[in-house]
């Protein structure tokens, strides 16, 4: 699957989950509005906010872990390139030493 299509689908899923949780919380709050006291409404509002923050935190941590994996992979590739370049440089030095030596094989 193309990365841009995958990113669009992920964004749509995140938006849909956030909207569903927000709608559900709001619906429960308004249905209970007349039957709850002021303190109960404050507790319900606090629970609502904690649920929204929780959903946001889950998606935030998921995206951060993906970024950390990408950074780690880039660093690994950079080290591999450096090792390959160092190996190639060493081989060139060895070849030049061998070609400059006066010993007959």
H/E element sequence: HH
Helix content: over 70%
Name the overall outline. Answer: rod-shaped
- What would the average pLDDT be, to the nearest integer? 84
- Using the CA coordinates, give the radius of gyration: 30 Å
| Helix-strand category | mainly alpha
Number of helices in the DSSP assignment: 2
The percentage of residues in β strands lies in under 5%
Query: What about the largest sheet?
Result: none
Key attributes of the depicted protein:
mainly alpha; 2 helices
Describe the structure.
The chain is rod-shaped. It has 2 helices and no strands. The mean pLDDT is 84. With 105 residues, it is mainly α. Helix content is 88%, strand content 0%. It has helices at 3-31, 38-100.
Topology:
Blueprint: H1 3-31, H2 38-100
Helix pairs in contact: 1-2
Please outline what is shown here:
By secondary structure, this protein is mainly alpha-helical. The chain is built from two helices and no strands.
């Amino acid at each position: 699957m193309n990365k841009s299509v995958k990113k669009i689908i992920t964004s749509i899923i995140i938006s849909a989950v956030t909207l569903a949780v927000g709608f559900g919380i709001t619906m429960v709050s308004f249905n209970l509005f007349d039957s709850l006291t002021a303190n109960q409404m404050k507790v319900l509002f606090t629970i609502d906010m904690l649920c929204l923050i929780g959903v946001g935190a889950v998606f935030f941590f998921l995206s951060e872990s993906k970024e950390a994996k990408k950074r780690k992979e880039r660093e690994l590739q950079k080290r591999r390139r450096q090792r390959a370049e160092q190996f190639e440089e060493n081989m060139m030095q060895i070849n030049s030493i061998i070609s400059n030596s006066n010993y007959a094989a």
